[in-house]
């Protein structure tokens, strides 16, 4: 009893800030101990096959430790000999920290879940339509969810301050013209946000789609919550807002499938046998690695004053191979005509009528 009474007297003689610091340190230690025990238990419960939960437990170790420290300080604030203003300020700071940490954990959980889910799809596969569909949906929805999470966390932090809370209530009560002005000012942002949701659902474009937009050919490289990055054929980047694809027409060459039919126009003289051209096209296609064997057609599509127009159709597995196949067809056809039928090349005929006497200087 003497020892306890003497200890109590010594404690009473200590400054209040020392006692407060000691109490808070003790509660922080208790929170860290609880976190360590809970983390070890979760590591044992999560099996090696549960990739999502194992990654979530590992990646959220640091924010969870900080949450344990926050709860320890929050519990210690009610025990430590603090003044009412000090305790209130400390609780508000801890509440803000808790909101930020919870938002951090939710962001990490969404990131891990999207990565684990998208691991089953391969964009490098030859037939990657399903992979592009899911990757596009998840990337757009993840960016929108992260934006909403940041907005909600910021709103929750601001609502912890009494003055800001009252200002928000009065602003909502007197919306009127101010609400209209704010709505008009935020119209482009809201437009792109809604366009992003619509694009994720309807999917007129996907990641790695081959598209023709603004007279340029390229592939969709990135889709953010506000704009789309198109990598053009010469490695330039075309940046377009999301609502562009909802309001303007464009060509999507890989909307449902990657195979395409390439068309080539050849202009030859009327003396050129069409069957010879058809056999040569079949020979070129049979030797080409770009031809997929599905569509091959040769037809005379127009007769002009001096030449006939021959259209050659050939299909390929994707847009890149279709372009290479078209170039290959043109090069080999023109080389064949030059060597075997040089007179069939387009030319202008000038004939002299027999009744007209020739000039001595002709």
Q: What does the model show?
A:
InterPro entries: LSM_dom_sf, MscS_channel_2nd. Keywords: Membrane, Plasmid, Transmembrane, Transmembrane helix. GO terms for molecular function: mechanosensitive monoatomic ion channel activity. The protein is of the alpha+beta class and 362 residues long. The protein has 3 domains: 119 residues, no CATH class; 68 residues, SH3 type barrels, CATH 2.30.30; 85 residues, 2-Layer Sandwich (Alpha-Beta Plaits), CATH 3.30.70.100. Helix content is 58%, strand content 15%. It contains 12 helices and 8 strands. The strands form 2 sheets. Strands 4-3-2-1-5 form a 5-stranded antiparallel beta sheet. It has a 3-stranded antiparallel beta sheet with strand order 6-8-7, covered by helices on one side. Helix 2 packs antiparallel against helix 4, helix 4 runs antiparallel to helix 5 and helix 11 crosses helix 12. The longest helix has 35 residues. The radius of gyration is 36 Å and the shape is elongated. The N and C termini lie far apart (141 Å). 17% of the residues are buried.
